[in-house]
Design goal:
The chain is mostly helical. It has one domain. It is about 70% helix and about 0% strand. The chain is built from six helices and no strands. The longest helix is centred in the middle third of the chain and has 53 residues. The protein is elongated, with a radius of gyration of 27 Å. The two termini are about 20 Å apart. About 0% of the residues are buried.
């Protein structure tokens, strides 16, 4: 292989432990929500400046709860702030892990695809045979409609 960005092998035990850990996360984070596209578009969003305002508003309102109408839930307002503060570090860790997972998937895919292209090129150089015929059939589907490219991966495969 001309490229090996990653070499990764996980045991069944490791995969079981990861599945268990993911199950624990899902079990303990059941209160999280999934929003539809429409809900995302419609909702009021809080950026950094809005968050500073909202935190200050909570502090001020907590000092003077008597100014609020009876249907204003100050306790829920505070609980939402506390939940956000508790979850943000976890979300940051999850985002880092997801980015590494995406990069790992991309690197594995690239290694696999480059090996396939190299193998196809070697099979073509070796001449005719059942293996070449089968690879050529799949390559013709993969690269249909693409002309020969200079120095590119597809050019190497064609």
């Amino acid at each position: 292989m001309s490229q090996n960005l990653i070499s990764l092998s996980l045991s069944d035990e490791q995969l079981d432990q990861v599945r268990t850990a993911l199950g624990v996360l899902e079990k303990n984070l059941t209160g999280m929500v999934s929003l539809s596209v429409d809900e995302r578009v419609e909702m009021t969003k809080m950026g950094p400046k809005s968050e500073m305002f909202a935190r200050k508003a909570y502090d001020v309102l907590a000092l003077s709860p008597e100014i609020l109408p009876g249907n204003f839930d100050l306790q829920e307002f505070g609980a939402d702030i506390r939940a956000l503060d508790q979850l943000r570090p976890l979300f940051a860790q999850l985002v880092r892990l997801v980015r590494r997972a995406e990069d790992t998937e991309m690197a594995l895919g690239s290694d696999i695809y480059r090996a396939a292209l190299d193998g196809y090129r070697f099979a073509k150089a070796a001449g005719k045979g059942a293996a070449l015929d089968e690879l050529s059939a799949h390559a013709s589907v993969r690269f249909s409609g693409q002309g020969r490219r200079k120095g590119g991966e597809q050019g190497a495969a064609n």
